[in-house]
Amino acid sequence: MEVLSVENLKVKLEGREVLKGINFSIKYGEKVFITGPNGAGKTTFLETVMGFIPFTGRISFRGKLLKRERDFEEVREKIGYVFQNPDDQLFAPTVEEELAFAPLVKGLKREEVKRIVEITLREFEIEHLREKPTYKLSGGEKRIVSVACVVTMEPEVILLDEPTTGLDRKRWEKLVAFFEKSRSSLVVVTHDTKLMERLGWKRYVMEDGKLCSA
Amino acid sequence: METPLSGEGILGTIDPRIKILSFLLLAWTVALAGNLLQVFAFLPLALLFYATAYRKTATILKILLFADFFLLFVVLTQLFLGSPYQGILIFFKSTIIVLFSLLLLTTSPVFELLHALHHLKVPNKLLQLMFFFYRYLFTLNEQLNLAKKSARSRGFVPKTSIQTYRTYGYLLGNLLLKSYFKSERVYRALLSRGFKGYFPVFRHFQIERRDIVFLLTTLIYWGVAVWKFYL
Questions:
Q1: Which residue from A15, A95, A166, B25 puts its CA 20 to 30 A from A208's CA?
Q2: Which residues contact B135 (CB under 8 A, 6 or more apart)?
Q3: pLDDT (tens digit per residue) in A22-72
Q4: Where are the domains of chain A?
């Protein structure tokens, strides 16, 4: 069954048609890659699905049509989005607060939030960063924390925009292990051919605002 | 997000709510002082607080000197107006208040201070504004330094010339635009993680014995000083 589907999605920015009628869907637990040249519209596609950019066409989540900002607000807790630039994503004062943000906003009990945060810190091997201010993290650390803070939301779908950029071998492997283990549906925008070969998921190619199966 | 004396000495471990309340009480009392004796009644307490953070003497002196530099103008103005005593009184009042603020407020990280202000019923929106302002000040500074480095790496040397002013104009204009776009992206990041207009905090304060001891010591000192020198 499809969890997220997009039909004839069109986006126009500054008079230019950036997305030209995209059709896409993903099932529960399905994992796919989107690749393609720079400026093809991959990030715009993810941001549109999150409801950040005005569009025409249809976006549905679990069969419910998303039209207004209020509709998107309701589903954003269930769709995680990892930004291309982790600096844009991390806003809390420390890594621990960053990880706790979404579960607290969701209204989970403090003990439950603590449990989720501890599990995630362990899973991504970032316990030593717990108290560190987010703006003092290295590039690779920021990248892994930006994925970890979306994971604590326990979303049904995770959209990741070039998540492996700037990661060393160890963290890259950690992220791959997470991708393999994750039960969420994953949409990974990437240029990392090694990642695509290693995981072997279905690939889509975005070119000049059009999406097609590779 | 550290402040100059963040976490320094015993004061760094005291509950920020207690420190803010103590600071307000002490600063208010010193501000109301009518003579130098009343002002100096609080000097021993300020020195006692200082003793717990003596390792940061250089930082404390640097900040005090910076603040006192401006206060000198007040003293000079009063001198010309014919009331030097008032000038000296204002100088010492302000110095002791600055010392209290340094030792009581800047011994906690900014985020903890804002969290404490939230518990003291300061409006949430104001606190969020303060938090984001402080949080992104560093990012903006980093961006500006990067842009300056980029200009220097391409042979830019600041001079008194149109080219230099133009370059600084580009740098500042660029910073302004980047800040605007950054704010849009940060807002999206907040939305994408379910932000609903308030900023939840994971770690909460707990009043401990040392907080009560600190509060009682301050209150007793304040009471005795007011009784002896103010009433």
A1: A166
A2: A91, A93, A135, B1
A3: 999 999 999 999 999 999 999 999 999 999 999 999 999 999 999 998 898
A4: 2-213
